[in-house]
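fwd from M.: "can u put these together and see what the complex looks like"

so here's what she sent:
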Amino acid sequence: MSNAIIPLLLDSLASAALIFFAAVGLTLVFSVLRVLNVAHGSLYSIGGYVAASVCLFIASRQLNPYLSFVALLFSAVFVAAILGPLIERSLVRWTYGKSEAVQILITFGLFLILEDLQRLVFGVQSLYEDSPMRLLGTSSIGGVVYLNYQILLVAMAVLVVVGLRLLINHTRLGRLITAVVTDREMAQSIGIDTNRIFILAFSLGVFLAALGGALATPTSGIAPGLGADTMVLAFAVAAIGGLGQIEGAAVASLIVGFARVLAIYLVPSLDAVAPYAAMLAVLLIRPYGLFGSVTARRI
Amino acid sequence: MLNVDKVSVSIEGVRVLRKISCDIVARKTTVLIGRNGAGKTTTLRAIMGLIPRDEGSIRLDSDDLGSMPAHTRARAGIGYAPEDRRLIPELSVEENIRLPALALNLDKAEIARRLDEIYMLLPELHVMRSRPAGGVSGGQGKMVALGRALTVARKVLLLDEPFQGLAPALALEYARTLGELRRHRPELALLITESSPVLLDRVADRTLQIERGEILVPSTKDDKAHVHEV
């Protein structure tokens, strides 16, 4: 029995970790900017493409393979530093205070642009380079063999939850973000440059998405269409957790990760449906998500 | 000090301020009296840059505030306490008061100095400093909002209907605090809006009337309100 349950749990956790990276950025950006960024999934896949390209380069030049871990992290930083401020300043900022329909249409336009740009830059072939995963090898508990890379994914996700909480509750920037989330106008009146906070929060969201994409490539590779798949999953997770809730996104990722893996193990044909079944079930009982409420401050 | 010149503002296409002009001068308490909907809050919001102007200019000393984003007001030394307080409920009273100092990135010694000054003026804030701001009463919240505004008010302090909704005892307390403030910070230019002139009769150096978005000819104690003073 335990031989079946342990791999199932580990797969669920690893799958949850990857979904979480995408969802937490989406939910963070929503809570600060009040914009649901439909292109968020594309930033996840761009992070994946950049990381996979750099890892392939490292492998082809036979550089120290451990460099690929550095590459995963720096790909995400690179994508966030370039695309974060660029997208926020050029497109997203024009949607502040506009209706949700306008925001969704504009970010959907951005999604289409980013998807085509990826095909243009990285081609339509899938990229796969699993050296980071192979380097870490496997371990076994009670005869069950698992990938150490999966443990790394889960550890990184936990690190992100703790790190974000510390950032928001215990740093100057976190205080300013809280003020902007609670009351944008008052935040301006007390001297907070809200535009700066928007750029930072958006870029942080891009970083988290790109990090998720980068960490995902060694396990599953990257191919066109990943952006759209990720977006829908991330939205399901954010909705289950309650839009704007960091811990909510973490718990919801676990639910969705578990639902997916359970479906793969039991009824493989339902794999794609499972996350939305979970979302439906949660939203029927709690329309604002597990951690959300009509009036709750979101972050 | 703070000069509002022929400022007009529209909300949803409706003119709510019509070419209002006034000077808020240092060392004086200016009271802006008007009924609900006369444009008192809009005047303060226009000064704070929270609402776009159709025309007119707003200057602080020689700086043109009109062309600068809203957040620059605090650094320029303008403190603002809105009528509805707008505190961050999850943060403590003290954290709310410190927030502008964090936004302006003041150093620790300066933050401590300003906090001390505020607690000296408003000792009741010191008593409730560690309570969450969401847990204080409406009247106490007004005091917290005043404290927060004082954190940045180096030159100008704008108070929007501070007595609105205060219990009589708290209103007396608040008026006493304004008197103290005048003594401790004589250089400050104060602009207070209110719907009834009675409450501010004792603190007002000058009274302006606003009616349907227009500032009427100055009346009562000082009829030279439009003239620059030192």
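replying to her w this: Residues 2-215 of chain B form a domain with the Rossmann fold fold (CATH 3.40.50.300).
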